[in-house]
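Repro case for the chain-ordering regression, as requested:
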Amino acid sequence: MKIMGRIALKTGEAVMLIAVSLIFVFPFIWMALTAFKTLPEVYQFPPTLLPESWQIQNIVKAWESGPFPTYLLNSTLVAFGVLFLQILTGVPAAYAFARYKFRGRNLLFALTLIALMIPPQVIFLPIYVEMSNWGLVDTLWSLILPYGASAFGIFLLRQVFMQVPDEVIEAARLDQASEWKIMWRIMAPMAKHVLVTFGLFSFIYHWNDYFWPLIMTNSNEVRTLPIGISMLKASDGGSEWNIAMAGNMILVVPILLIFFFAQRHIIQAFTYQSK
Amino acid sequence: MQPTMGTQQSSLVKEKVTMKKRSLSRWTETVRPYAYIMPALLFFCLFFFFPIGYMIYLSFHDWSLLDLSAMEWVGLANFQEIMLDSDFHLVVINTIIYTFGTVAISLVLSFFLALWLNRQAKIYGIMQAAVFSPHIISLVSVSMLWMWLMDPQYGLLNAILEFFGFPAYTWLADTSSALLSLILVSVWKGVGYNTIVFIAGLQSIPKDIYEAASLDRAGKLRTLAKITLPMLSPTLFFLTIINLISSFQVFDTIYIMTQGGPVNSTNMLVFYIYEQGMDFYNGGIASAASVVLLGLIGVMTFLHFWFAERRVHYR
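-- result from build under test --
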C-alpha cells in the first residue's frame, strides 16, 4: 500500500510539474507557433496547434514593416551607451564609498540607496520638462543620460571593493601606481564577475524598456525596438497577430538565448537586491 | 582624509608610506573621494534629486507641456482638484485593487512554488528557470502575447475554456474582468522572481533548526508555521515592499493592452499621470498626482529601510 501511495504521489507531482511548466513556457511557444501561421489560420476557431504550412517569411514581413534596422541600432546604442556610462561613473563612486573615509560618506551613500528605490515612472514628468528645456527630447541622449549613474551598480561594486584585501592596494601604492590606475587596473578586474552580472541586468533592462522611450521619443529615427514592435499591433483590434508575434520574436529570442546560456548569472543579477 | 590602511606592516614599510604621504598634498587627498563620487552624484542630482524637487514645485503651478514659459502659481489647487475628481478616486481605487490583488496572489503562489521547487534534483532547477523566464521578457512582448491569448473571439484561453466545456470569458473586453486580467498577467510575469527570492531565503535557514524540530517530533505543518514562516519573515517583508512598489507603478500593460479601459476600469496612477500630462496637457494635475505616488512609494521605501535596520525575525 505504501509503495502504491508513493507512486501515486510521484505521478501527481509529475503531472503538476508538467502543468506548471506549461503555464510559464507554453505562452512563448504559442507566440512562436502563431508567428509562423497564415492570417486565415490565425483567425480560425478553435485554433490549430501547429501551423499548416510554416510561414518563415512572416519574420521578414515584420522586419520590413517599419525601419527596424534603425530601431535595432538605437536599442543597441542606448543599452550599451547606458552601460558604458554606468560603469564609468559607478566604479569610481563605488571605490570611494568602499575604500575612503570622508565626511558625509554615510549620508551620500544613503542618498544613493534612496535612488535605488524610487522608480523612474514617478519622476518622468519633471525629467521630460528638463529634457525639453535642453532641447534633448526626441534624441538618443534623452534615453541615455537619465540612466547615466546606477545606484544598483554602485551598491554591487562597493560590496566587492570592500572585500579586496588591504595588502593588494598597499602593494600597488608602494609601486607608485596612481589611485586612478588602482581603480581600473586592479579593482575593476577583481570585480569582473559582478561587472558581468550587473552588465547583464542593465543591458536586459534597457533592451526591454518600453516606458522611457515611449515618453521621450516621437520620431522613427530615435525609436527603439520595443516601441517599433508595439506599433505592429493595430489599435482597432483587427491585428495581424502572426506578424505581431513574429515581430516580438525579434525582441524575445535574443533575451531567451542569453538566458539559456547565462541562466545563473541572470537570475543572480535580477535577484541580487534581495540580499 | 586618507585611504584606510592595513595593520600588518613592517616598520620600514610604514616609514616609507608616511614619507610618501607627507609629500602628497593633503588637499588632493581630501578632495579625491568627492571627485570620485562627483560624476555619479551629478547624474543623481540632475535626474533624480532635482526632478523630485522640481516636481513638487510644478505641482503647485498651473502649466502645460504646450507652453512651458507660462506657469502660474496656484497653491494647493491642483491637489484640491484631484481630491475632488471622481476619476482620480477611481484611479486610486483601481491601483489599490490591482496592487493588493497582484501582490497577494503572487506572494502566496510563489511561497508554495518555492517550498515545492527548493530541491537539488536537476528537474527542479529547470523548473525554477522556466518559472523565472517571464521576468526577463519585455513588457511589450508580454502584453502583446497575452492580448492575443486573451482575444475574446480567437484567443487560446477561450479555446481552452470551450474545450473543457466552460463558457467563453470576456478578459480585457469587459469592465468586470479587465482589471483581473491585468492582475493575472502581472502575476504570471512576476511570480518567478518571488519564487527565486523565497528559495534563496529558504536556503539561508540553518539546517540544524529543522533537525532539532524533527527530534522534537514536530509535525510538518507545525514546522512550517513555527520555523519556516518566522525565519522567512525578512524575505517576505522585502518581497512585499518590492512588489508593492512595482505594482504601484504599473503602466506598460495598461498602455498596450487596455489604454485604461473599458470605461476607465483599468485606469491606474501612472497611466493617469501620463494621460493628464502628455495627452490632456494638464501638467499641474499630472504633477500633483505624481507627488501622491511619490508619497506612497516614499512610505514604502521608509518602511523598507526601517525594517532592514531592525531585522524582523527572532522576535
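Ordering looks correct now. Chain B touches chain A through 103 residues (CB under 8 Å).
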